[in-house]
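Per-residue structure
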Amino acid sequence: MPGYDNELASIVAELNRAALGSRASHGDAPQSTASLDQLLAYAAQRHASDLLLIAGAPVALRIDGVLSPAAGPPLGAEDTRNLLLPLLTAKQAQELQQSKSTDFCFSRETIGRFRANVHHQRGTLAGSIRLLPARIPTLESLHLPATLHRLAEARQGLILITGSTGCGKSSTLAALIDIINTERRDHIVTIEDPIEYVHGNRNSIVEQIEVGHDTPEFASSVRSIMRQTPDVILVGEMRDPETIATVLTAAETGHLVLSTLHTNDTSQAVSRILDTFPLANQRQIRQQLSLAMLALVAQQLVPTANSGGRYPAVEIMMGSHAVRSLIRKGEDHQLYTAIATGRADGMITMEQSLAELVRAGRITRETAVAHCFRPDDLARYLQS
C-alpha cells in the first residue's frame, strides 16, 4: 500500500517540521496534543485497530491484524515524549514514573475513544494506542455465533472469555453486557482497567468502576460491590488468586459474572485458574469452578479469504453436566472430547469453528491450518 505509507509519512514529516519550529520558538517544552490528534484521525480514517509510537521506529498502524509502518524516518526519543506526555494527567504521570507503565482511556470529540498504554523501553518513552469503536458492537457485527446470545439470558454463573491480547475479548463482553442492558431490568456493575466501552442506562442501570480511579484493585472492588445488590458483575480480568476466588464466590452466590483470561483454548483456561492456587487449595477451586461455570469461550481473529478484515474463530465449552463432572474429578484431558461431541449443547471446538469458516468461504484452508491447535482434527473436519 505505497500511497497509504506515503500519506502517513507526510503527516509525520509535517509533525517533525512543527516540532522543530516549536523548539526554536519556545525551547524544549512539549507540544500540544494537536499533532497526536492528526495521527489519531488518520488511524481512524484507515480503520486501524492500533497506533504504535516507539522511538527508533516509524509511526505504525495495525490494520486487520497486520502492522503497516510508515515509509518515513524513525521517531526520536523527544518525538515520542512530545506526542505522549500531554495525554497524561498528573496522577498518570506519577504512576508512569513509579511503575514505568500506565494504562488509561481518553477521548477526542471529533475522532473517538482510545485506550492507551504508555511505557518505557530502552530508556525512552513509547506508546500503544488502541482505537475503540464509537458504538458498542453487537454479536452479529462481531460475526460471533448466535449461541452466545443464550449466555446473556442466564441469571447466575461465570462466563469466561479467553484469548490472546487483541483477539476481541473486550468487544465480546461489551456485546453481551449490551444485550443484558437492553433486554433486562438489572443492576449491572463493571470493574475495568481501564473502562473501554461506556454503557448508558437502557432498561438496566449500569455502574462502571475504573481500577486506579474509582477503586485500588479488582478483588476488593468485587467484594465491595457484592454489598450493592448487583445482578450482573463484569470483572475486566482475573489477574490474581484473590480476584479469581472472589469471582468464583460471586458466581456461586446468585450473580451472573463475566470476566476474561489470557489463554488459547478453554482447557488451558481451567488449568490456568487451578495453577494460580497452591496445590492444597486446588480441590476446593475445582469444586467451585464446576458449580459456577456457565461457559468458557476462547476466541481468536483470523484473516479473511479476501484480505479484507478478520473473522473470529471460537471454541465454546458450556457448563453441561458432563463438563462440570470432568472439571470436578480433575479429568481435564477429556474436556476437548466433551466439547467436540457437545454440539447439541451449543459447544464447538476451535478446529470445528475453523473448518466451518473454511467451508463458508470466509477464510482459506491455509489460514485455518496456521491458526489451529490440532491439525489432524482440523483435517478430519474439513473432509467430513
